[in-house]
Every structure is written in C-alpha cells, then in structure tokens.
Amino acid sequence: MMKALRLESVGRVHTVEVPPPSATADGKEVLLTVTHCALCRTDAKMWRHGHRDLELPRIPGHEVCGILEGEPGHYAVWPGVACGVCPYCSSHMENLCPSMKIIGFHRDGGLAEQMLVPRECLLPLPPRLKPHLAVLAEPLACCLNAVQQAKTRKGDRVLIFGAGPVGLMMSLAVRALSAQPTMVETSSTRWQKIKSFCERTGLKVEPQTPMEAFDVAINAATSLDTFTHGIHGIKPGGCFCLFSGLDAKGLVPSSLLNEIHYRQLNITGAYGCTRKNMREALEIMASHPGPLEELVEGFVGLEGVKEMFPAILRGEVMKIIVPLSS
Ligand SMILES: [Zn+2]
Ligand SMILES: [Zn+2]
User: How many Å lie between the centroid of ligand 1 and the Cα of residue 139?
Assistant: First the structure.
C-alpha cells in the first residue's frame, strides 16, 4: 500500500492508503517513486473551486521529482500526456495537443509515494541540481513558455503583475532571455516576504504600475485590473500575455479593446509548458540554484497539505514542498 492525498470532491481532501499503480508491460508507463512534490496555487484552487481540467476523484500534484527503482539519478516530470502525432505534437507545441491529459488533473499526480508516469515524461536532472529544487522546473517552464509566447527579446522591458512565487519565477524567466523584469505588487505583506529575495537578486518591485512604457506585460495575478493596467502599460506594438486565469468578476470595456486596435497591441495566452521548456528550466536552475532556494518557504507532510491550502489561496506563502519517499 502507499500513502497519497486524494481530492474526493471540491472541498473534500483526505490522506488515504491505496494500492500503488502498476507499470505497463510494454514499458511505456513506469512506476515513479516520488521524492518531492511542490504545492501550487492551482492545487489549492482545485480543492476550493474545482478546475476546468480536473476529473474527480484525483490525487493532485503536478510539480514532481522522483526516482525509478534500479536506476541512478532523479527525474523531473513533464506533467502532460500528449498523443505524439497531431500537428501540435509534431511541431513542439505538445501542451496544445487536443487529447492532452494533464498529470494531477486528468490522471493521478505526485502527492503520493508512487505514481504512474509515461516514460517519455521523465526528464533527467542536470547533475548539479538538488532534487527538492527540481520540483520548481515545471512552474519555471510555464513561465518560460509565457515569455516566449510574448515574443520577449533581449533588452525588452517586461512588466509582471504579482510578485508571488510565480511572479518571481516569471522575473527569472525574463532575465534568462536577457530582458528586464519589473514586478508590480500591491500587497504589503507580500513585500515583506520577498524583500530578501529581491535584494539578493536585484529584482525590481513597484507598489503600482509605473508610468513608463513597457514592451511586454504578463499577469501572474488573477485580478482583471492586471489586464487593464497592462494594456495601458505597454508601448504601441507591445504584447500582453495572459498567464494566470482571471477571476470571473468584471467585464472588459470596449474602450480598452480599442486601445488594442489604435496602438496595434498583441494579446497572447500561455497555458502549461512543453518538454523543451522543462529542459530549459532545468538548465537555468542548475546554473543559478541560489535564488530558487529562497523561494522555498518550507516542507510539510501529506497530512499537513490541507491546512496549507487556505494560506496558498490567500497568497501568503511562497513554495511549500512535500517530501515523500526518500
Ligand atoms: Zn503548478
Ligand atoms: Zn497531440
């Protein structure tokens, strides 16, 4: 038997003892012994509200690192199961595959001692990267996808709404392209939290949208205001990337849409990441592990996860990691 966290229905989550899944005879699906799984705001959102791509009951967890019995080294998990043959899969956009099944959403994820993973989802860790940090490869890869979708170029000035774990990782992704990130964060409690991270990395945070014009804006926060301020904050010909899903409240006025027309703005979206994004993220992390270590607020056991969800939803904690089998 193995221990796992199971989301039974929206609002109901338990620690359970269940039989471990079994690897398939053809070797395509292997049994991964999970060493670490990070909690994401999306996991907390699933528990509180459900999610478009969630099928219940489900073992959540999509930011995962683990080992294979009898093999050396750790693997990070690309949490997608794509068909491999459609036009998206054939052109390195497998995150858009129409038959995509997301690990932790449509299939069981990493908040368990063991999980079933397609072999082709496993990415070996670069030798210098610590396994507990490798769980951040997935969120960083999603951020890399966003900055790439926004066609961010070297030297571009990029406005990022929100300075939670995702906003900070987005800033690192922007830096990886030799562009210049500026975060906007309105919460003073969050300012306290990220002070040392920003001092150490030299990242800029502003309490409100600066007056100067940016090449790119990306939301790592859910308020519709981020879209309004972002559209006004970018230069003619600039790009706004919708990264975080916006909360359901509010309507976009046509006067704001006309800004897109008159100033020839580009609007793009980003959802998930590709294997290539994951490999890029692992390389970035292996060469700059220092700032990532500071994103980790702490560790909790499976039993402690439920208590963390409200604080994660309120944006009060940085990354929480669940250590599983060691
Ligand atoms: Zn996530
Ligand atoms: Zn496909």
Answer: 5
Ligand 1 centroid, distance to 79 Cα (angstroms): 10
Run means of pLDDT, 10 residues per run, the chain, 326 residues? 97 96 94 98 95 96 97 96 96 96 97 97 95 96 98 98 96 96 94 91 94 96 94 97 90 96 98 97 91 93 97 93 90
Q: What is the CATH number of domain 151-269?
A: 3.40.50.720
Specify the pLDDT at position 250. Answer: 87
Q: For residue 318, what pLDDT is reported?
A: 94
What pLDDT shows up at residue 75? 98
* Distance from the alpha carbon of residue 258 to the mean position of ligand 1, in angstroms: 33
**Ligand with the closest atom to the CA of 142:** 1
**Closest-approaching ligand to the CA atom of 93:** 2
Q: Determine the pLDDT at residue 326.
A: 66
For ligand 2, a single-atom ion, which residues have Cβ within 5 Å? 82-83, 86, 89, 97
How far apart are the C-alpha atoms of 229 and 226, rounded to whole Å?
Answer: 5
**Shortest CA distance to 111 belongs to which of 315, 303, 309, 319?**
303
Half-sphere exposure of 73 (CA within 13 A, CB side): 10
Helix 165-176 vs helix 275-287: crossing angle, to nearest 10: 90
- Report pLDDT for 34: 98
Q: How far is the CA of 94 from the centre of ligand 2 (A)?
A: 6
Ligand positioned closest to the Cα atom of 99 = 2
Q: What is the pLDDT of residue 249?
A: 83
Domain boundaries, the chain: 2-139+273-323, 151-269
Please state which CATH class domain 2-139+273-323 belongs to.
alpha beta
The alpha carbon of 40 is separated from its chain's Cα centroid by a whole number of angstroms, namely 7
CA of 236 to the centre of ligand 1 (A): 32
**Alpha carbon of 316 to ligand 1 centroid (Å):** 16
In sequence order, what DSSP letters do the residues of 256-274 get, joined into one string?
Answer: HHHHHHHTT-EEEE--S--
